[in-house]
Specification:
heterodimer, A: 299 residues, mainly alpha, MetI-like fold, 14 helices, flat, B: 427 residues, alpha/beta, D-Maltodextrin-Binding Protein, domain 2, 2 domains, six-stranded mixed beta sheet, four-stranded mixed beta sheet, 18 helices, 12% strand, globular
Chain lengths: 299, 427
């Protein structure tokens, strides 16, 4: 059998050249808005860099690891990483467990299904600024939660309590993002074969055993995705410490790395150290995501 | 990846790219060029009203040098927007809302024009503002900002709440720290208001201008926090001020949690730290009185200094018609326009002899007299490198020790002073 020679343009452009045209906008988008800025941020982090007016004669010498040494020896930066680790430890497991349980419940519910799905999704599509106002009403010193708790209310109150501010933020973000993750799990649940549940029932499994032995393994790929997305979103925490605890308060207890980047890069005009924090953060998130994936995808 | 870290990098890209391909116009040609210019005004309605009227007057008399005014574009702060505009090369010619604390940064960026390059500029500034002008000189001795207007910070008190607490509302005991604390105790103890005073307990770098700095200016007899490259505020005056506020927070007279509305207007606090802008804001809402900030032993009002809370005018290097910009700047700070600014906004032009220059205004508006008298004794933020970073270090230390009581005051203030001094010494 003889092989027909493949035309040169097919070898270069593939069998469906039109596909390149369709995918090009997104490829350009990725390169221009993510890959190039990331590369530039890495470059900035190795230089004594500041923003200057066009035409201004400025020196931006290579400084090696100086910016990394500066940020890693800065107690405020180190604390922000500890803060965000505390956030992730609360937020990610809570997100996974609550999203899966609620998605499973929603999957079995017959009446008011659409209403319930929309209800869980509304916080996700609502602007954080509006939701923060509601949580301030709930968790401020004279707020609804403290009124209900009466003498059991914590002192100092939730948002100015160094031990409670970050957990409250973690709860807020869990609640706000849950609608999106429930949708992911609902989609995954549709691919779990019905006959597995029937087999489990025949074997005498109750609902809890069915959930643990059929549902949880059945949605494992979705769980990997949820964990990685929740980690990435959580590691980039900014709006909530900025608005809910008035700039990472109390006394820096809820300051996140991205918030410190904003302070240093934008407010204080030091984009070099801000970029160094950003690069460290990206590396940390990649490592955590890699570990998560290895753990969650192993048999 | 929907990463905010990456998003910030996008901002870096945008700024870096525009910086790379822009074209500077801070040349000597621009310094002598005339023609149309753009100016930015603060988004305060009264200032917009004054600004538009001023521009209309200018345009009526200068058809070839038309001025176009607009509000500063929306952003988290004006300084961020101006900083981005400098980097992008599209800053306007004049910004009538340039914060003195941001000037060192804008100057480092190459975004500001030294006004001294215009013939007679130095003498114009110094004759208009007198000795106060020195506070606005940069370390190289030049003026990169035109001292414009200030809002001397004083203490407003709610007369009705003071009466409710059984205090003398006509002559409240608020001169010394001891009196201020006793008055606060009376207000909170009598439940006249939940808090005696409610300065923002938040961590933004500028918040210290409205709790620590006015009292330090008063207690120290008019010192800036950094003088001749040395931090001053870890002296006894600084420690006394921090300890005073520490007591206010520890006793619960000032709340550790930010109030999401206006605590003074909503009667959640009986006092507020304000400038003359507050007169219009609280008119018809609160029956108020005003006193100077307290000092440890009490001082005559005529000797008390306070923070300026000034906003100045910057002439930006992206401007192609800088001579027109300078002439507009002089026009906008003329005696006549300053009078109109005072009339429209109640804010105090940084001028010598303010009460006598505009005697008719202060006669007709006696509420503003105390602020006008106070305007002669104001202290600005020091014009030093890394100004914003220095104020953030001070705020962080103050927050830790004074507001939340986690670090001893002496230790926190000493560490903050050491960091501030180091930062001020860097280029």
């Amino acid at each position: 059998m003889t092989r027909r020679a493949t035309p040169a343009f097919t070898r270069v452009l593939g069998r469906q050249p039109l596909g390149i045209v369709f995918s090009a906008p997104y490829a350009v988008f990725l390169l221009a808005l993510f890959a190039y800025p990331l590369g530039l941020a890495v470059w900035i982090s190795f230089h004594d860099y500041f923003f200057a007016a066009p035409g201004a004669q400025v020196s931006r010498p290579f400084v090696g690891l100086d910016n990394y040494v500066a940020v890693l020896s800065d107690p405020d930066v180190r604390r922000s990483f500890v803060n965000v680790a505390e956030f992730l430890v609360i937020n990610v497991p809570l997100t996974v467990v609550l999203s899966l349980v609620l998605a499973t419940a929603l999957n079995t519910v017959v009446r008011a299904r659409t209403f319930l799905r929309v209800s869980y999704y509304v916080p996700y599509v609502t602007a954080s600024v509006a939701l923060v106002a509601v949580w301030l009403f709930l968790f401020s010193k004279g707020g609804l939660v403290n009124s209900l708790l009466g003498p059991l209310a914590p002192s100092p109150s939730w948002l100015v309590n160094g031990a409670l501010a970050m957990p409250v933020i973690a709860l807020f973000v869990t609640w706000k993002q849950m609608g999106f993750f429930i949708l992911l799990y609902l989609a995954a649940l549709q691919s779990v074969p019905r006959d597995l549940y029937e087999s489990a029932a025949v074997d005498g499994a109750n609902r809890f055993r069915s959930f643990m032995n059929v549902t949880v393994p059945g949605v494992r790929p979705a769980t990997t995705l949820v964990v990685i997305l929740a980690t990435i979103t959580g590691a980039n925490l900014f709006t909530e410490p900025y608005l809910l605890t008035n700039g990472g308060g109390p006394d820096g207890a809820s300051a996140s790395p991205v918030f410190v980047m904003y302070q240093k890069g934008i407010e204080q005009g030091n984009p070099d150290t801000a970029s160094a924090i950003g690069v460290v953060l990206v590396v940390c998130v990649l490592l955590i995501s890699l570990v998560n994936r290895r753990i969650l995808e192993r048999d | 990846m929907r990463s905010k870290a990456i998003a910030l990098s996008v901002a870096v890209l945008a700024l870096g790219t525009t910086a790379a391909c822009g074209g500077g116009s801070g040349s000597s040609d621009a310094a002598s060029a005339t023609g149309p210019i753009k100016v930015w005004l603060s988004n305060n309605p009264e200032e917009i009203s004054w600004g538009k009227a001023m521009v209309k007057e200018w345009n009526a008399a200068h058809s070839g040098q038309k001025v176009t005014a607009q509000e500063i574009p929306a952003g988290k702060t004006s300084e961020e927007v101006i900083g981005a505009a400098i980097t992008a090369g599209n800053a306007p010619c004049l910004v009538f809302n340039t914060s003195p604390a941001a000037v060192p940064q804008f100057e480092k960026q190459g975004g500001l024009v030294a006004l001294d390059q215009f013939p007679g500029a130095t003498s114009y500034i110094e004759s208009r503002s007198g000795g106060s002008a020195d506070q606005y000189k940069s370390p190289d001795g030049k003026f990169y900002q035109m001292p414009w207007k200030q809002n001397p910070v004083m203490i407003f008190y709610n007369k009705a709440l003071f009466k409710k607490a059984g205090l003398d509302a006509a002559n409240p005991p608020l001169k010394t720290y001891a009196q201020f604390l006793a008055t606060s105790k009376r207000i909170v103890g009598s439940k006249a208001a939940p808090s005696a005073i409610s300065p923002a307990p938040t961590s933004e770098f500028f918040q210290s201008w409205f709790d620590f700095y006015p009292l330090y200016a008063a207690e120290s007899g008019g010192k800036q926090i950094i003088e001749n490259g040395k931090a001053t505020f870890d002296d006894q005056a600084g420690k006394d001020v921090w300890n005073f506020w520490r007591t206010m927070y520890a006793k619960g007279y000032a709340p550790q949690e930010a109030y999401s509305g206006d605590a003074f207007a909503d009667q959640k606090a009986a006092m507020a730290v304000v400038g003359p802008w507050a007169i219009a804001v609280y008119k018809g809402k609160v029956d108020w009185g005003v006193v100077p900030v307290p000092t440890k032993q009490g001082m005559p009002a005529s000797q008390i200094h306070t923070f300026t809370d000034a906003k100045n005018i910057g002439l930006y290097s992206a401007c192609k018609n800088q001579l027109t910009a300078w002439n507009v700047l002089k026009f906008a700070t003329s005696k006549e326009q300053d009078g109109k600014l005072l009339q429209t906004t109640g804010q105090m032009p940084i001028r010598t002899d303010l009460p006598t220059t505009y005697a008719a205004y202060f006669k007709a508006n006696p509420d503003y007299r105390l602020f006008a008298a106070q305007a002669a004794r104001t202290v600005e933020v020091p014009n030093v490198p890394n100004s914003v970073q220095i104020w953030q270090e001070i705020r962080d230390a103050y927050s830790s020790s004074v507001i939340f009581g986690k670090t001893p005051v002496d230790q926190a203030i000493s560490q903050a002073a050491s960091k501030a001094e180091k930062l001020a010494g860097q280029s």
